[in-house]
Design brief:
alpha+beta, elongated, 112 residues
Length: 112
């Protein structure tokens, strides 16, 4: 005797939809930077999408790398933020995927 379980088609859709939304949001900007224009910058093999807002910059690493360490990634993100903004990135905090830096610009706002 076999028991057959049938799932309604809309239940499968409801189970798959959140997974698709989560995967699609992996390299999107945080809400604070969502409306800002993006610049793609590559530094030493790491590719970042950099957005600048006021004296803050956000770098989202979009390339795959095996077991990236935060130290080298932080330095590359800092250089990417400086290239995108034209300012010095004084403090850079975050993880291997998303980093936020505080910019120090001579005129107070980003140069680019």
């Amino acid at each position: 005797m076999y028991l057959t379980v049938r799932f309604p088609q809309n239940l499968c859709f409801l189970l798959i939809l959140p997974l698709v939304v989560l995967v699609g949001a992996c390299n999107t900007a945080s809400p604070h930077f969502a409306a800002m224009p993006m610049q793609r910058v590559t530094v030493d093999g790491s590719t970042f999408e950099v957005r600048v807002r006021g004296n803050l910059a956000e770098a989202v690493r979009i390339n795959t790398q095996y077991a990236p360490r935060l130290g080298p990634i932080r330095e590359r993100a800092r250089r990417a933020m400086e290239a995108a903004s034209g300012c010095d990135a004084d403090r850079v905090l975050g993880d291997q995927a998303l980093l936020v830096g505080q910019l120090s610009c001579p005129g107070g706002e980003s140069a680019k």
